[in-house]
Amino acid sequence: MRMRVWAAGVATVVLVGACSSGDTDEPDQPDSSDGPAVVGTVTPEQRLTVVGETDPVAAAAAASRLLFDRAEVAVVAQDGDRAGELLGASAAAGLGVPLLLEAPGDGSVAAEEIERLGATTVLAVGEATAEDAGVEVVAVAADPGAVEGATGLDLGDAEEVADDAAVAAVAALDPEQPVALVPEGGGPDDDGGDGRLPDVDRAEPLTDTLVLTTGSPETLAAVATARAAGAQVQVTGGATDPRASADLVALLRESEPAAVVALGADLAAEEGLDWKLDTAASGVELPGGGQTLFPGRMLIALYGHPGTGALGLLGEQDVAGAIDRARQYAAPYEPLVDVPVVPAFEIIATVASEFPGADGNYSTEADIEVLRPWVEAAGEAGIYVFLDLQPGRTDFVTQAELYRPLLELPHVGLALDPEWRLAPNEVHLTQIGSVDVEEVNRVVTWLADLTRENGLPQKLLVLHQFRLDMIPGRERLDVSRDELAVLIHADGQGGQGAKQGTWQALRQGAPPVWWGWKNFIDEDQPMLTPEETVAQVVPVPELVSYQ
Predict the structure, then answer these.
(1) How many C-beta neighbours within 10 Å does residue 36 have?
(2) What pairing do the DSSP bridges indicate for beta strands 459-465 and 484-490?
(3) b or e along 494-532 (b: 16 or more beta carbons within 10 Å of the residue's beta carbon)?
(4) What does the pLDDT look like over 44-87, one tens digit per residue?
């Protein structure tokens, strides 16, 4: 069965059966009785194809069907026979032919694919028999020497591979100089074998095709087939979100593959894989690297407004001085955590006012051109920025829209300060403001849409909170948009006992978000040192800001 899902920018084909991609008609096969065996590769038709098989046998057949239109020689190993699979991968890559798997006692899927390929000879490695293939079978033990003897390949010294590194080792196989992969601690089986494969005329390599896998074990044979076809294979190290793999982002920045194939049930389950790949292909990275914020970095932020020290540390110096100061505050955290520490600015873009102002909203909106030099200088210096809104009687989306050009920059996020969100007839400092979660969710939608439409890395959305009633209905907070990293920032001040109580109260029953902590220079009693912040604030926050 073939299911085609169209989304913005790319077409996705999800392969859900062993014979689910491509035409079912057998290709015309040339007569190679007097020459080398012929192999033909094919670039996938779609820009993105997802092979989401959970069964290694079916995944191997699907990858073969996707990348090869014919192969008069194929390699077969038995599913679960790791020695056979690894040496079969070495042989397949070296010969330039597919690696198929047969289930113990049932070779039907492999036989169907062997027939489609038009194979006349099969190399059965290890426990594989290929008895259902109906073609000449050259059977060899799972032994490097036996494989070399049957294939004519020079596999060099055997390379032992741990189970959890097997897929990565297969992905690294060089078809021009393959090596013999064997299981860690598993010696060769010297039973040998009989017969010799015909020479193989390798097909043109699929250099314009990129194959992705997280390294999930069911993709091993499919990855071997990809390397045999000459496709580039990138192992994401467990990341299902392409934006989270700095190596993949860098690779896509340097190349423009005509087709991308995602192997594995885990990648198939990743929602929005198409637009996330498009974003990764932009090559734009966040300060600290990559395109997703957390986990993977810790932000240390100066809070305030340019030009005034009355609202926080940020404005106590010019932009160059603020950059230096942000770095100074971030540096002590570097030896304390095992992720990159990134300095940040939290710039108050709209300031709560005791006066209604000309628009009557009790909020003073900074001119975007006043903020732009700070935002741009921060980006050039590798400093993350998020704009803080204190909207008074207007709503957060209305104010955020004023700063759209800045939010369209890849290193700029947004912070909402419910303390300064007033209801009609309320005024600042008479009561603590609040915002209902429906308004917050409108911001989530607005900012996530802006991020996706512009192909931007993940954006930070900070929700300041020090009382539960500041965000009524918080349990309904929309955290479904992967374009954003939503973070609740505990910004209470005072004694450490009270602050810890606030921290625990805010975390109880919270939706799945990231967390931030604020250290007040003058108001905290006492203010925590960086060492104390990391040791006493549990779990360690992703954002620590200073005011």
Answers:
(1) 13
(2) parallel
(3) eebeebeebbebbeeebeebbbbbbbbeeebeebbebee
(4) 999 999 999 999 999 999 999 999 999 999 999 999 999 999 99
Alpha carbon distance 142, 80 (integer Å): 13
Nearest to 414 by CA among 428, 432, 396, 438: 396
Segment holding 201, helix H or strand E: strand 200-201
Query: Which residues in the chain show pLDDT less than 70?
Result: 1-34, 186-194, 429
Q: How far apart are CA 2 and CA 510, in angstroms?
A: 41
Q: Helix, strand, or coil here: 8?
A: coil
Q: How far, in Å, CA of 396 to CA of 389, rounded?
A: 7
Q: CB of 197 within 8 A of CB of 121?
A: yes
Domains of the chain: 2-282 (no CATH), 298-546 (3.20.20)
Q: Measure the CA–CA gap between 292 and 194, rounded to whole angstroms.
A: 53
According to the 3-state scheme, what is the secondary structure of 57-86? HHHHHHHHHHHEEEECEEEEEECCCHHHHH
| Single pTM value for the model | 0.87
Q: Give me the phi and psi of 383, to 5 degrees please.
A: -110, 130
Residue 214's SS3 state is coil
Whole-number pLDDT of residue 7: 33
Q: Classify 441 as helix, strand or coil.
A: helix
